[in-house]
Amino acid sequence: MNALSSKYAGQNFTILGFPCNQFNKQEPGANGTEIMNGITHVRPGFGFVPKFPIFEKIDVNGDNEHKLFTYLKRNCPPTKDAFDPVLLFYLPIRGSDVAWNWETFLVDENGRVIHRAAPATDPESLSADIDVALSKAKGNSQQTVVG
């Protein structure tokens, strides 16, 4: 995601990060310093510092899912057909659920979800979709990646 942030710096494009602890409890830290330490030193680690805003930890699936993710999922097909409930920490499990951390949504300047990418997708592969969205945008329109 940092590569995309750098590639599109100065253009009408923003990446937003939303930590979530619903997938194998991989984000147990408290909001703020603990989450940033986890990102920097554990996952992805190796001194990673995001070049995009990281918001407070939220639920992206289940009974307590954030309304943003309810909207995103309702407007784009899922990236996975089946889920391993042993690694998931929420209920109920639905077919439209975010499959895992780093699943990505590309949203156009009107808030329309135009692409949803599986968690293991190389962020650079989103460039073609981002380029198309930016070429269609006019004025001060903003493209956003949510992950």
UniProtKB/TrEMBL annotation:
Signal peptide: none annotated. InterPro entries: Glutathione_peroxidase, GPX_CS, Thioredoxin-like_sf. One of its GO terms (molecular function) is glutathione peroxidase activity. It comes from the Eukaryota. Keywords: Oxidoreductase, Peroxidase. The keyword Chloroplast does not apply. SUPFAM superfamilies: Thioredoxin-like. Pfam families: GSHPx (PF00255). GO terms for biological process: response to oxidative stress. Belongs to the glutathione peroxidase family. This is Glutathione peroxidase.
